[in-house]
Amino acid sequence: MKQKIYQKKNLKLYALIIIISATGLMTSCSPEYIPNMVNTPVFSNKGEFQATVATGTSNFDAQLGYAITDNIAIIANGSFADQTNDTTDEFHKHTIIEGGVGYYKKLANSGRIEVFGGYGMGKIKTYEENDLFDDDYTDISFNRIFIQPGVGAVTDIFDGSFATRVAFVQMIPSSTSNFEESWHMFVEPVITAKIGYRYAKAVIQIGYSFPVNEESIDYNTQGLIFNFGLTINIGRDYLNL
Hints:
single chain, elongated, 1 helix, mainly beta, ten-stranded antiparallel β-barrel, about 240 residues, Lipocalin, two-stranded parallel sheet
């Protein structure tokens, strides 16, 4: 009798495990919010122009910046990812385009403070193979509003800065997605270093993306921000640093 009761309990446990596993497999694969590289130009003067290309956790990033006056500047960012599985047809793709305007100011010779605000939009597509059920495909768009204060220093050889991007992300699911439209806030502090000489410098950036209310997010998020590349600077007045 005891053995039969034990067997029945095991059968119920196995059935529960199968139901939970099947439920997870039937759930559509989630998109993933991947933060792009933060644009931190630390401008010095009117007419200064910067262009950056980089690769890293957000795949490929391109950045532009131009100082319109001695205190006002504009920036533009783009990010593109096309990550595929070598052995399957699974993939993650995203495209981000954004622009912003900001204020910067010199502190003594080398010190800088800046704050930018802007808006961006993008697309995320993911595909995940499923052996037991239909394959999972997600296609969504998103909007992002951000504000980004920072502080840094510039020299002939080295530019360094610390900035924190506060991003408000609106995910807009397509009809094939199983989660609702939502807004979420992310805090993304980064440290950026540019090393070289005057007009061309290697750049590296490391930081982290913290969702403010992670429990309420029904899609995947990537925490680490790590990118490296090359920055070109034209128009900086090095004689007056």
